[in-house]
């Protein structure tokens, strides 16, 4: 179905609009700019505009259309155009992507007055107001507050660095990607910091933008400055840390104008609360003046948190340093190392290098290059030396035209399968470095899986279908249409190959009878009878996993939850199944695995941590710290765990000693997914370009 956006069209959703270029009712163009087809209205209550979902080929977009009643209001039109102007200059995962031609005029049929349009990246996730409601309006922890403050300060560093300030920061204008990255949206109120503007503060001609409870006093008077964004940031954090709106009588006294929030956030330390209070100082001059100063204050807060440790602690994790390019992430030295000379603090790599040189043990390069990790189990009481390896590029596979979301290496070690936002699944021959088969969906492909014998490939995504293909030739076998009501994000087949499970962005999990009694693909029953069981997880699901004995299904995303499959069989029809929720991560779970004996569950999260869980007691048993950014994926090989992050790093852990033993760097992009070939080559996806990259481990230097 295509939707007509002509504001006076009597039937914009005419049933014959599906494959047409012009509306069957009014004759207006249905393909905007020759690229975008509008599919549905998301909201007509969004300020000055209507918000639609549109598609460029198979890639979802957000289309904003200015309501026609504002066309004659020059200030409103200016705000609308400014959002496109600002966003087109920014390249950061914390802001929606907009192309330079993202703003355009659309002329409906038989109307002289155009519609003002803006196309931008669609963010798959809730805003923070919605997120708070979804998770029960519970205040966030100090760790989460510091992580999110860092992310938002990093975004503002970019925005201010381009001589703009946002002017409308509030929970509704901050969205949360499934990866855990916050995204600042709605740049329509952004203002350019020109000399003329700064000189004319107080001029009544300057447009005032106000959001009750989040707007600072000077902005209410039409005199916003860059530090106005810091006030709104502070008020937003207070809402998240207290779960109270700014005008709630529990924190705001309208008679005295007192804003007393600390008693409602007992989990927040005094140093962090002091920083937040400084952010919301009534006078802009009394607030931190730059994003750099905010990041420095956060580092000081963190140093106080570890001040009970010896000053010489070298294992403390550095705090992220703000950077205009998040793909060139750096870290600043931990203040706890202040006993070192200043020049040493500015060169943390030198300390790590000298420490590694003093402690390093010769590596079994040959074994590592054969795909094995060359470390014998060590003494659990002795911290292992951290070795450092780098990689060199071997090959780059091109062909996809959109982000690559999933990756799967078959057991033959040379057949790779990839899934992309361009609506295709590709089967690659790694030996030849070429695509063998291209399989097509009608929309973004989010996840892929295979049957246990790897004779059938299964794919799914935004078109809400689950499709089945034969391997290795990619021949279509059939599909389940409308398998879910929204985007399907995860697939998994249980260990005996009998059950397929799928999960979507709203938390619905469905179990399907994948094979019949003879072991054949059970397409008939799945397509006609539907799923055998439906579960409801706590929010979006990013990954699914069965225990090796098939007794428990594990879902990870907004929450980490365990589902007892035996209880599913015993439950009465329609009865709600209550999962066990594992508490410990402070952000989304991205990937999971489990040890061969089913005793230890491992989860990787956007909170930068890898957690180990005791499956017998269903409690957290360890935290693996060492990553400096979101941990996107992991790979388990016996007692060795590989984990990869958005900071272009893979860490290899000894699970017995619960410590990292290898750090692999040299990757050119963040690592969203990776796999390892039998010859030791590492295959990765990630970054802004839709490439698959192959890497070779370099020979380690002689000790």
The main sheet comes to:
8 strands, mixed
CATH topology of the largest domain: Methylamine Dehydrogenase, Chain H
Task: Find the structural class using helix and strand composition.
Answer: alpha+beta
The helix fraction, in percent, is 10-25%
**How many strand elements?**
42
Cα separation of the termini:
65 Å
Shape: globular
User: Unreliable segments (pLDDT under 50, ≥5 consecutive)?
Assistant: 189-210, 306-381
What's the alpha carbon Rg, rounded to whole Å? 27 Å
CATH architecture of the largest domain: 7 Propeller
Pfam families: Pkinase, WD40
Region (Disordered): 310-335
WD repeats: 397-438, 438-479, 481-512, 582-623, 624-663
Domain Protein kinase: 37-299
Short structural description:
It comes from Shackletoniella antarctica. The chain is an alpha+beta fold and 703 residues long.
What does this structure look like?
There is one protein chain. The protein has 703 residues and is α+β, with helices and mostly antiparallel strands. It is 18% helix and 32% strand. The chain folds into four domains: 15-121, Phosphorylase Kinase, domain 1 (2-Layer Sandwich), CATH 3.30.200; 128-305, Orthogonal Bundle (Transferase(Phosphotransferase), domain 1), CATH 1.10.510; 319-350, no CATH class; 404-582, Methylamine Dehydrogenase, Chain H. The strands form eleven sheets. An eight-stranded mixed β-sheet has the order 36-37-38-39-15-42-41-40, with no helix packed on it. Strands 1-2-3-4-6-5 form a six-stranded antiparallel β-sheet, covered by helices on one side. Strands 16-17-18-19 form a four-stranded antiparallel β-sheet, with no helix packed on it. The radius of gyration is 27 Å and the shape is globular. Residues 189-210 and 306-381 have low confidence and may be disordered.
């Amino acid at each position: 179905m295509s939707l007509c956006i002509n504001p006076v069209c009597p039937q914009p959703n005419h049933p014959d609009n599906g494959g047409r270029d012009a509306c069957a009712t009014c004759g207006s163009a249905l393909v905007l700019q020759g690229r975008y087809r509008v599919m549905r209205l998301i909201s007509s209550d969004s300020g000055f505009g209507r918000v639609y979902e549109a598609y460029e080929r198979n890639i979802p977009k957000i289309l904003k259309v200015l309501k026609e009643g504002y066309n004659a209001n020059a200030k409103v039109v200016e705000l609308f155009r400014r959002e496109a102007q600002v966003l087109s200059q920014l390249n950061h995962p914390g802001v929606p992507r907009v192309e330079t031609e993202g703003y355009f005029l659309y002329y409906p049929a038989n109307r002289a007055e155009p519609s003002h349009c803006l196309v931008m990246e669609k963010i798959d996730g809730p805003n923070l107001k919605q997120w708070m409601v979804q998770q029960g309006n519970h205040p966030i922890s100090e760790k989460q507050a510091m992580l999110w403050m860092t992310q938002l300060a990093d975004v503002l560093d970019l925005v201010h660095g381009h001589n703009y300030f946002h002017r409308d920061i509030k929970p509704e204008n901050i969205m949360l990607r499934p990866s855990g990255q916050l995204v600042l949206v709605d740049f329509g109120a952004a203002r350019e910091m020109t000399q003329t503007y700064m000189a004319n503060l107080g001029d009544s001609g300057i447009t005032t933008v106000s959001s009750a409870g989040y707007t600072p006093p000077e902005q209410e008077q039409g005199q916003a400055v860059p530090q106005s964004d810091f006030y709104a940031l502070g008020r937003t954090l207070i809402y998240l840390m207290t779960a109270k709106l700014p005008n709630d009588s529990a924190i705001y006294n309208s008679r005295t104008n007192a804003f007393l929030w600390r008693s409602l956030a007992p989990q927040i330390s005094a140093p962090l609360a002091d920083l937040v209070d400084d952010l919301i100082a009534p006078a802009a001059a009394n607030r931190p003046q730059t994003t750099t100063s905010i990041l420095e204050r956060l580092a000081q807060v963190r140093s106080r948190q570890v001040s009970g440790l010896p000053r010489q602690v070298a294992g403390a994790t550095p705090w992220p340093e703000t950077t205009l390019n998040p793909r060139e992430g750096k870290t600043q030295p931990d203040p706890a190392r202040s006993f070192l000379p200043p020049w040493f603090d500015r060169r943390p790599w030198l300390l790590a290098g000298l420490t590694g040189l003093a402690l390093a043990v010769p590596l079994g390069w040959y074994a590592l290059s054969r795909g094995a990790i060359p470390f014998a189990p060590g003494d659990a009481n002795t911290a292992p030396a951290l070795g450092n390896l780098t990689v060199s590029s071997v090959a780059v596979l091109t062909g996809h035209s959109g982000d690559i979301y999933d990756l799967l290496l078959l057991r033959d070690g040379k057949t790779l399968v990839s899934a992309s936002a361009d609506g295709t699944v590709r089967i690659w021959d790694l030996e030849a470095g070429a695509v063998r088969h291209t399989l097509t969906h009608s929309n973004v492909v989010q996840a892929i899986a295979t049957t246990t014998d790897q004779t059938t490939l299964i794919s799914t995504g935004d078109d809400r279908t689950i499709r089945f293909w034969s391997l290795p030739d990619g021949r279509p076998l059939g599909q389940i249409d409308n398998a879910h009501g929204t985007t399907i994000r995860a697939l998994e087949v249980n260990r005996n190959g009998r059950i397929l499970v799928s999960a979507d962005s709203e938390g619905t999990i469905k179990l399907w009878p994948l094979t019949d009694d003879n072991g054949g693909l059970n397409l008939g029953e799945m397509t006609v009878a539907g799923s055998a069981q439906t579960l409801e997880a706590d929010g979006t699901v990013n990954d699914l996993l069965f225990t090796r004995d098939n007794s428990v299904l594990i879902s990870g995303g907004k929450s980490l939850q365990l589902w007892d499959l035996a209880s599913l069989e015993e439950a009465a029809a329609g009865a709600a199944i209550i999962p066990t929720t594992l508490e410990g991560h402070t952000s989304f779970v991205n990937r999971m695995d489990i040890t061969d004996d089913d005793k230890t569950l491992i989860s990787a999260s956007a909170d930068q941590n890898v957690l180990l869980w005791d499956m017998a007691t269903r409690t957290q048993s360890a935290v693996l710290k060492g990553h400096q950014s979101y941990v996107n994926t992991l790979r388990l090989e016996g007692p060795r765990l590989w984990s990869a992050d958005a900071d272009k790093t893979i860490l290899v852990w000894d699970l017995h000693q619960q410590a990292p033993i290898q750090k692999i760097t040299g990757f050119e992009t963040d690592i969203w997914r990776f796999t390892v070939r039998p010859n030791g080559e590492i295959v990765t996806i990630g970054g802004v370009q839709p490439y698959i990259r192959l890497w070779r481990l370099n020979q380690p230097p002689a000790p």
